[in-house]
Amino acid sequence: MSGKKTASMFRLLLFASIALAAAAGSLHAATASPNLSYFWLALLIPTFIVAIAYMASYAFNTPSLRAILQDELLQILATGAVALTLVGTQLVVDQYVVATLQASGAAGSNIDGVMAAAADKINSLSAGTASVLQNMQDVSMALGKEASKGVFCNFMGVGFSLSNCSPFNAYRGSLTASAFTSTVALSDTAAQSYLLSLARNFGFTVIIPLGLLLRCFRASRGAGGALIAIGFGFYTVYPAVILATDNLLHNGTPPNAPSIPKVGACDPMETSVSTSLSEFTDYGDQLTDYTSTKALAYFVLVRVLFLSILNLIITLGFIRMFANMIGSDIDVSSLARIS
Amino acid sequence: MAADDAGMAKLDCESMDANKTRIAIFLFLSLAVLLPSMLGASTPFTCDPAQFSDTMQVCAIAAIAMFAIIALVYIGGEATQSPRMLTWAKSESVQAFTSLAIVSILIFAVFSLCSFQVGEMQTIFGLSAMPKIYQSAPSPYDNGKDSLYTGAMRYIENLAALALGNIASLRYDLGAYELRTSFNTFLCDGICIFSLSSTSVSYFGGESMNLAITNNLLGTATVSYLSVIFQYFTLVYIYNGLFLTFLPIAMIIRSVPFMRHFGGSLIAIFVALYIMYPLMLVADAYIAPGLAASGASPAVMCGRDSLNCQGIGVFSTSTQTGAVCKQGEDPCFGKSNEWGMEGKWQQSDLSGLSPNTLGRAIPFNVLIFLTAVFLPALNFIVIAAFGRELSRLLGEEADMSRLGQMI
User: Fold this and answer.
1) Among A177, A230, B10, B288, which lies 20 to 30 A Cα-Cα from B157?
2) How many CA atoms lie within 13 A of A150 on its CB side?
3) Nearest 5°: phi and psi at A29?
4) A150/B200 CB distance under 8 A
């Protein structure tokens, strides 16, 4: 009975390996970089070790060891199934995203999967945020220069100074706060871009194969599960969430941020208070224009900042749930705090 | 019939004892063959055989003491014909052998990792290139010949130098912005010769915004640096205190009958930190260049304070440059008078006071933060999961998740 069970396990493992190979071939064709041949290595090494131990159990006549090894073989089989699921899911997600983007006309020739599409999206957000920050810097430079203008006059020992451009300083505090927020947004896009790069380069080549290998051994099952969940979470779920949340937002709101107008030249020798006040209020009206302010806040606060936090929270939530599902209880609260 | 059953049971017991003896002999012979070869493979850094011999001496003393106690109890049990003492002695002798087996496996694992070279990770995972820091750094173990332990230390040292260089760069930018924002010029329109009147302008006054932003970046950079330094000292502690003191204590505690589970947990913590932590750091060394490979152009760092951008190789491999260092060249240095001040009567030389652009300082700062804070947080999640599972296997469950929260 025991022999039949073992034989059926081996058959299932063989079937899983063949299916994995087929899926790996398809995935390799669909995506740019993943090299899935290391999945094999990660599954074959523990299988080999278990096989050796199984033979040793006969050599030393220890039936209790055989029972443990059968359980371990089952775990290897389960790990193979996990690998197959990961590859299959990645394949389906890639095909779905490429088909959807091509149907909408949004996909370029370089978009071959969810990872490339998400990287493209983040790059466009990053360029937009950098543009907003650069615009604010330019506005700040112009504002600082104009607001600093003052006149000093001295004739026959009698002097006076006039600083009628200084009211423009009132806008500099708010502009700095806005630029500060844009800086955080730019940092967020850079961080997302780096995380995607990390996942693209090492998700399916190092992190997941290492996780599969560790998961096959009893002592390192937890660590293996954690690595698999982290690798898959950042390789597949994170880019998919980036695309999904961003596409859900567009509803008549302009996707790009408008430019803030620069202040005009201020004449420091202007003696009319009403003229100075008029220049001040006119520029204030331009700065607080409802349409441009709304579009700017939407782009920086919602589309970049809020979504980056939401994307990471969803991904970390998935990682925790998935790790738990494959036998690893991990605490991602430290990562959630960093996010 | 009953006599036959008893005879069969006796034969089974004898057969089981013979099996145990065979297994024990097999294990000890295997280790006897493998350990010298591991010792002879390489002896760098923490893999010094002298340290091992000290630890093994303590373990041997603990084992002999334990066997002596068991023997005494056994003799006492035989003398007093106490079945309880005899049973205790037998079960403890099995546990003592288990402890010996754990020690042997541990020492074997550590020796194996000592002989493991970081360059082998490239072969194992089929990676196209090796991290630059393992290729040409001034070390006797260059070209990927670092052991796991020297490799982890090298990575942390490079990252710490780079984090410090980033702080120096941002600190310089802050100083430059401070000076530039305070710069004021008087524009004379010709009549000032007679009327002594003029207009004053602060051309760089608007950079006070950059000052505030850079101040915030410096805070993040400081957090990154502190995180790396924390990891550096953790690694030093693991290499020294943990191995020389913690492991022998854990072994001895595991040999004490009523402290067995606690000792097992301590061993699990030791294994998780001593084996998994350097392994994860070396994995980080391989992964870090992949972080920086997101864009077409590499991240840029401005070298300040004669630090020469030490550690910049953390983000590069033999085939790809993820980050570059700018020193003594535009636009990190020498760009001044951007606002057309030439030709005026009043000029000030602002050469050498041109800070890095925010568009470059921010991504580099994020890169350092992810490498110094985010990746270690991931490491500790994996280490905590490993430690928990192993401690459950060896004794009591140990919750190591707080380590990650320290980051």
Assistant:
1) A230
2) 13
3) -75, -30
4) yes
pLDDT tens per residue, range B118-150: 888 877 777 778 888 887 655 554 556 778 888
A175 and B209: CB-CB below 8 Å? Answer: yes
CA distance A178 to A182: 6
Contact state of A141 with B206 under an 8 Å Cβ cutoff? yes
- Report d(CA A318, CA A93) in Å as an integer: 16
User: Which whole number is the average pLDDT over B241-265?
Assistant: 73
**Strand partners for B323:** B299
For B118, the token pair is 């970081």
pLDDT tens-digit map of A131-143: 999 999 999 989 9
Nearest to A183 among B213, B287, B381 (CB): B213
Residue B162 — pLDDT band, cuts 50, 70, 90?
A: very high
Cβ–Cβ < 8 Å for A330, A300:
no
Asked whether the CA dihedral A251, A254, A257, A261 is positive or negative, the reply is negative
List Cβ neighbours of B151 (8 Å cut-off, separation of 6 or more): B118, B134, B141, B278, B281, B282, B285
Residues 206-235 of B with CB under 8 A from A: 206-210, 212-213, 216-217, 220
B284-302: per-residue pLDDT in tens?
998 888 888 766 678 888 8
Is the pLDDT reported for residue B214 higher than 90? yes
Among the partner-chain residues B197, B287, B358, the one whose CB lies closest to the CB of A198 is B287
Which is nearest to A280 in space by CA: A267, A295, A293, A292?
A267
pTM of the prediction?
0.78
Residue B114, SS3 per DSSP:
helix
Interface contact A330-B384, CB threshold 8 A: yes
pLDDT digits (tens, 9 = 90+) for B316-366: 887 888 888 887 655 565 454 444 444 444 455 565 577 788 888 898 999
Contact by Cβ (8 Å): A302, A249: yes
Name the token pair of B177: 């912005």
Report the Cα B122 to chain-centroid distance in Å. 19
Q: Which DSSP string do the residues of B13-75 spell out, in sequence order?
A: HHHHHHHHHHHHHHHHHHHHHHHHHHHHH---GGG-HHHHHHHHHHHHHHHHHHHHHHHHHHH
Of chain A, the end-to-end C-alpha distance in Å amounts to 52
Provide the chain A residues 141-160 that lie in CB contact (below 8 A) with chain B: 141-145, 147-155, 159
Domain boundaries, chain A: 2-338
In this complex, do B385 and A222 lie within 8 Å of one another by their Cβ atoms? yes
Is a pLDDT exceeding 50 seen at residue A31? no
| Contact state of B293 with A218 under an 8 Å Cβ cutoff | no
Q: What residues 33-62 of chain A have any CB closer than 8 A to a CB of chain B?
A: 35, 37-38, 60-62
Strand order in the sheet with A158-162: A158-162, A150-155, B198-201, B185-187
**B109 close to A (CB below 8 A):** no
Express each pLDDT in A157-191 by its tens digit: 777 777 888 889 899 989 999 999 999 999 999 99
Q: Note the ipTM here.
A: 0.77
Chain A residues close to B405, C-beta within 8 Å: 333-334, 337
Q: Is the peptide bond prior to B331 cis by the omega test (within 30 degrees of 0)?
A: yes
CA-wise closest residue to A171 among B206, B223, B110:
B206
Match 């469950």 to its residue by tokens.
Answer: B397
Is the pLDDT assigned to residue A36 strictly greater than 80? no
The conformation of residue B275, written as its DSSP 8-state character, comes to I
3-state helix, strand, coil in chain A (%, to 5): 80, 5, 20
